[in-house]
Amino acid sequence: MPTDSRTKSKKAYLVSLRHKLKKHLQLQSASANQVDRRWLNGFMAAGFHSGLISLSELKLEYMKAYRNAYGERMTEA
Q1: HSE of 25 in the Cβ direction (CA atoms, 13 Å)?
Q2: What is the CA radius of gyration of the chain?
Q3: CA-to-CA distance for 76 and 4, rounded, in angstroms?
Q4: What are phi and psi of 3, to 5 degrees?
Q5: Which strand (E) or helix (H) includes residue 67?
Q6: 53 within 8 A of 47, measured Cβ to Cβ
Q7: How far apart are CA 42 and CA 36, in angstroms?
Q8: How many CB atoms neighbour CB 74 within 10 A?
Q9: What is the DSSP string of 7-65?
Q10: How far is residue 3's CA from residue 39's CA, in Å, rounded to a whole number?
Q11: Structural domain spans, the chain
Q12: With 70 as the cut, is the pLDDT of residue 1 above it?
């Protein structure tokens, strides 16, 4: 089954996004202060504007990473 470069790019982006979200939320949970997330926001915006991911998929990925990091659901998104 051949996969085109778009599918490979989307898969690579999702793997990278999950890693960055996990790393960010681990830093956030260990820190008493708010962690700077400008780079993460830019990475998510780039994925959306390039068409690799939709806003609903971004929201689901963030909520899933939050649930994995904190062991609870987000109260507001």
Answers
A1: 19
A2: 14
A3: 37
A4: -115, 135
A5: helix 55-70
A6: yes
A7: 12
A8: 11
A9: HHHHHHHHHHHHHHHHHHHHHHHH-SSPPP-HHHHHHHHHHHHTTSS-HHHHHHHHHHH
A10: 30
A11: 5-70
A12: no
Tens digits of per-residue pLDDT, 50-71?
999 999 999 999 999 989 888 8
Q: Is 52 exposed, middle or buried (0-12, 13-18, 19+ CB in 10 A)?
A: middle
56's tokens: 């609903």
Burial 9-40 (b: 16+ CB within 10 A, else e): ebeebeeebeebbeebbeeeeeeeeeeebeeb
